Amino acid sequence: MNILYLIPSLENTGGMERILTEKMNYLVDQKNFNIHVITTEQNVDEYGFKLSDKVIVEHLKLNFYQLYNEQLIKKYFKTQKKLIIYKKRLHAFIQENDIDICVSLGGKEIEFLGNVNWSCKRIIEIHFSKNIRKQFLLARKTGWLWNFIGNIRNKQLEKQVKNFDKLVVLTKADLKEWESITNNVQQIYNFSPFKSSDKSTLDKKRIISVGRLEPQKGFDLLIKAFSKVNKEDLKGYTFHIYGDGEDKEALLKLISNFKLKNFIFLEGISKNIQEEMYNSSMYIMTSRYEGFPMVLLEALSVGLPIISYNCPSGPAEIIENNDCGFLVEFNNTEQLVARTIELINDERLRIEKGQFAYNKNKKFDKDAIMKQWIDLFKETISKN
Question: Contact, 113 vs 93, CB < 8 A?
């Protein structure tokens, strides 16, 4: 079976890049699939995660992202020109390599891939909630105009995915939303990328968060939440945020303004985030929105209790009835702080939640979830 994945870039260290790399490695190394991947934004042969030599990679270097801040009319026409080039080169690649299934992870190809009559089957794999385009805008802009534009962009997404042979979403909540739009949708969870036989001892005075430093991840909300806390209540615990991105300077300024330099640390990107989690005692997530957050699966794999805002979507399908941690009302800073202090003060509760987390990791087993993908591929090819 010849599978082609389409993703903007593989050089980042985000959850989508990690899970795709793990999937491709699994399919070529353990199942002998022929796997190809095309990127549109990557200009270097460096990857955020180790990629099997058997995966065939092509970087088209179209760089749509460079147009992001262009004036609107110029941006439109320049984007359309690049899309014509992308469509032509992608079609040629599919024909030359006899591709059976083309899997989009929601890059620029979504603008045309659902409407072409090519020889391959087409799957769209959505790693965010149905309202992602509106959420993205409103995390950066406010006001009725951006709300209106966000609604239009969401409608465009709904129209674009309808004609794919299959739409795959990450959560049961997403499945319910998309079923009102199309009957061609299936839900498959991400799997945990960590194979772990050990778990954290939960005795280190470290709290960890991981993600891109951008509005979606809500690290500004985390900093503001703990800015008014009596530091004595935290008994020497410190926050360590791993990641890089556009909000780095703004977050550093917030930390400085709130006099939290000895309490909250921006650690940059770690090549061994599993080890950083082993050396922590809880995970906190304050995202404004998610898909199905890989970092929470990683936290489960080392037995970290989790405290997360109940953002759309994903956290509520990992933290169920507060079993492996606490699900907190979005932006309820008092509750977030109170739950954190509760876990700090109660070692027995911290260990209990951590054990639940470690046990729950089995629910997201790689072999079981990859079987769902392989079955989906076989089913999709068999349909006329």
Answer: no
pLDDT along the chain (384 residues), means of 10: 96 89 96 96 92 96 90 91 97 97 95 93 87 71 79 82 92 89 92 81 96 94 91 92 95 96 94 92 94 91 96 90 96 95 96 95 92 96 82
- Report the chain's C-alpha Rg in angstroms: 21
Residues 43, 59 contacting (CB under 8 angstroms): yes
SS3 content of the chain, % helix, strand, coil (to 5): 45, 15, 40
Q: What tokens appear for 13 in the block?
A: 């260290």
Looking at residue 41, its amino acid is E
- Asked if 210 and 274 touch (Cβ cutoff 8 Å), the reply is no
Sheet holding 264-268, edge to edge: 264-268, 238-242, 206-210, 282-285, 306-309, 325-328
Residue 22 and residue 69: Cα distance in Å, rounded? 33
**Are 194 and 298 contacting, i.e. CB atoms less than 8 angstroms apart?**
yes
In this structure, the dihedral spanned by the alpha carbons of residues 15, 20, 23 and 29, taken in order and rounded to 10 degrees, is: -120
Q: Give the separation between CA 382 and CA 178, rounded to whole angstroms.
A: 24
- Find out whether the peptide bond into 196 is cis, omega within 30 degrees of 0: no
Best CA proximity match to 354, nearest among 312, 303, 298: 303
Q: Amino acid letter at 369?
A: I
Could you tell me if 76 and 143 are in contact, meaning their C-beta atoms sit under 8 angstroms apart?
Answer: no
User: What is the end-to-end Cα distance of the chain in Å, rounded?
Assistant: 16
Antiparallel, parallel or unpaired: β 325-328 and 56-59: unpaired
Residue 3: both structure tokens together:
């599978």
One-letter amino acid for residue 66 of the chain: Q
Q: How many residues does the chain have?
A: 384
